[in-house]
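Box 3.1 A note on notation
Throughout this textbook, protein chains are presented in two layers. The first layer is the amino acid sequence; the second is a C-alpha cell string describing backbone geometry. Keep the layers aligned when reading.
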Amino acid sequence: MSKRSMIVELLQGISTDQEATVKGWVRTKRGNKNVAFLALNDGSTIHNLQIVVDLPSFSSDLISSITTGACIRATGRLVASQGKGQSVELQATDLEVYGTADPNTYPLQKKGHSLEFLREIAHLRPRTNTFGAIYRLRHHMAYAIHTFFHQKGFFYFNAPLITGSDCEGAGQMFQVTTLDLANCPKTEEGAVDYSRDFFARQTSLTVSGQLEAEMAALALGGVYTFGPTFRAENSNTPRHLAEFWMCEPEVAFNEIEDNMDLAEEFIKFCVRWALDHCIDDIKFLAEHFDKDLVERLESVLEKPFVRLTYTEGVEILEKAVADGHKFEFPIYWGADLASEHERYLVEQHFKTPVILTDYPKEIKSFYMKLNDDDKTVRGMDILFPKIGEIIGGSEREADYDKLRKRAQEMNVPEKDIWWYLESRKFGTCPHSGFGLGFERLLLFVSGMANIRDVIPFPRTPKSAEF
C-alpha cells in the first residue's frame, strides 16, 4: 500500500498517472448504478478530492456503508479529471471504511446549516467547510504571531494562568479554589478563610499576562505572551467571550510612538500572512459570508493608519451628532467610547484603521503613564472596520510614586501588586506594550460576525458545553 498523501498536495497537480492513497471524510456521494463519485476531504484544504468508484468492482455492502460523514481510505490511480471543478481525481482500486456515519442520525447532511445550529454541535462543526476554513485560519494566525516576534528577536514568555492580582482592577475574575463551597471555612470575622485554601490565599484565573510580561521585558528587552485569558463579564454580545486568547508584547525602552509603530507593523504582518497563506479559505468565507472580505483585508495594507488623540476623536463624533447622526450611546469628553463610536471613526469618517491616543485617565487602567496634563494617559487603541477595538495598549508608568498613587486611586490592593510596584524601585526604565485580542483578529480576517464562531468551543455566560 502506498504512503498516505494529503489532498492539498495532490490538488496542486504536480504529477498525475500515479498511485496514491488518501484518507478522510466523505462530504458527498452521488452517481448511478455503475459509478459513484465521492467528495473526500481530509482537513488539509477547503477543497475536496473526487474519488471515482467503479461500482461493479466492489461489494454492495461496502459501497452502502460509505455515506456522508463516513471515514474511509481510498487507494487508486491519480489522473487528470474529465469533469469541472477539479484538476485531478482518484480512480479507486481499493477502499476501506474506518468509521460509518448513520445517515438517519448524522446531523451534517448535504444541506445548509445555520451558524446557530452548528454551535449546538460544536464537536462536529470542524467537519464543515466553514469551520475547517476558520480553524486553519486560526492556526496560521497563531503561527504568524510567533513568526513576527521571533524574527524581531522577542522572547516567548509564559505568564501564569492562576494569579492573585487583578491586572485590570475591574474585579471580573473567575475564582480558583479547592474549598468546599457548601461548607467553606470561616475566619472569626465570618469571612472565607483562604488560609486553608490550596494556595493559602484568594486566587483567580488571569485576565491578562501583562504585569508578569513587564517583569520579563525589564530583563530580556522584548517579550510576548500568547495564551488564554478569562473574564467573568456578563456580556452576551457577538464580540465577547469569557475565555479568549490574548497576545501581549512588552518592550523595554519603547515609548508610546514606538508602541504604535510596533502594533501597526504587527497587525499588518498578520493580515499579509493571511492573504499569502490562507487565500483559498478566505475566498470561500468571502463567497459565503462577507463578499468584501478580500478587498477589506487588502485595504488595511495600503496606507498608514490614521493617528489622532481621544480629544480629536470626540470632537469628530460630537460634530457628527450635531450634523444629525444618531448614536445609541451618548458621546462627550470623558466617555468610554462604545463600539458604534469607534466604528464611525473607522468606517465612515476616515475609512481606514485608526490609532486613538491620550485617553482620560479615569477610563483607563492604573498602569498607564500619565501625560504632563495629569488628565490623560499615554494609552492607545487600534480601531478596525467591523470590529472596533482590536488592540489596546500604552506606555507603562515607570515612576514608582505615580504608579502607586494611581493604583490607590483605582482601588487596586497594594498587597496584590507589591512585586509589580517594586520593579519601579530597581532599574526602572520607559517601557510599553499592548494586547491583541486573538479572536478579534480572527473575526477580521475571516469575515465572521460572531466571536463564538472563531473559537472551537466558546465559553459565554450560562454556556460551557463540550
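The radius of gyration is 27 Å. The CA atoms of residues 180 and 197 lie 9 Å apart.
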